[in-house]
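ok posting inputs for the acetyl coenzyme *A job
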Amino acid sequence: MTLRSIIAGTGSALPKRCVSNAELAKTIDTSDEWIVERTGIRSRYIADSTETTATLATDACRRALEAAGMDAADIGLIVLATATPDQTFPSSATKVQASLGIDDCIAFDVHAVCTGFLYALTVADSMLRSGAASSALVIGAETFSRILDWEDRGTCVLFGDGAGAVVLKAERGDRGILATRLHADGRHGDLLYVDGGASTTGTVGKLRMKGREVFRHAVKNLAEVLREVLADAGLESDDIDWVVPHQANARILDATAKKLNLPPEKVIVTVDRHANTSAASVPLALDTAIRDGRIKRGDLLVLEAMGGGFTWGAAAVRY
Ligand code: ACO
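and the output
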């Protein structure tokens, strides 16, 4: 039987403070109607000064370990996807490792913005199947509120903070990660970026985006990568029980589902509550739908995401 990475457990964490569109409209020239109509977002969670990418990630990992019935000491690999690390270095993955009390394991961050979790999952899956470790924590965690320009109403209303984690275990059998596909095209770096960095301005910078062009690329790339990953796994779109997409915008989710003839009831949507949490959004949506009972053991899932770079990717998983 084939050695695969199975999802043994999931967890997520959100900051304490939930901010509605109406609350944002008190300080920003926007309205609940505009935000809901263009994006489907109704609220987002914003981290306070005690909540960071690493603390949210640690909370998500504790819940994922509990769901998997495992101890932190069982973990041999931590891969954390983020574009908003606590510090330039050490990596947020090693901070999570220390907070969980793991003395020695492989731990590092990956950076592919909103596609980060798909990149992290693919790397961890390869390492488990090659024998580098037998279990892994794969995390998407972000505090995008720290890199938003709160004067730019075209971007600041779209994002939120949070973290999601999965425990992967190497096991022989039919379930687990069946196929993954990743892409990047650096020619579009000027459509979605942060205008700062350690090696250039020496500052963290703020997020900048040309929203309409990002939208156009997102729908095209996501539909293509979903078709690719299904073909790699020898599956048809009718076989899918659930699509767990990156939660950028309800209109991107609808347009992508339509392109693949997928009924909207099969698409997990949390963007209304969480907004776009970048690398955290796929594992957050996955954990939400597992805990509310929609996703069940044996279901066929397709995870997908697209983000700055551009980067995009997908994974087919038998849960
Ligand atoms: N409230 C009220 N009005 C606003 C707001 C706001 N928050 N933001 C922009 N507007 C105004 C603009 O000023 C403009 O006014 P004008 O016509 O008087 O100049 C008008 O609304 C239209 O602005 P556009 O930017 O053209 O609006 P658009 O219809 O393109 O919607 C949006 C903007 C929602 C960002 C859309 O382009 C989009 O969804 N893009 C996808 C981007 C995305 O989701 N990125 C996430 C990161 S990438 C990823 O995760 C895939």
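notes: The chain has a mean pLDDT of 97. Residues 30, 34-35, 38-39, 114, 153-154, 157-158, 192, 209, 211-212, 214-215, 218, 246, 248-249, 276, 306-307 surround acetyl coenzyme *A (CB under 6 Å).
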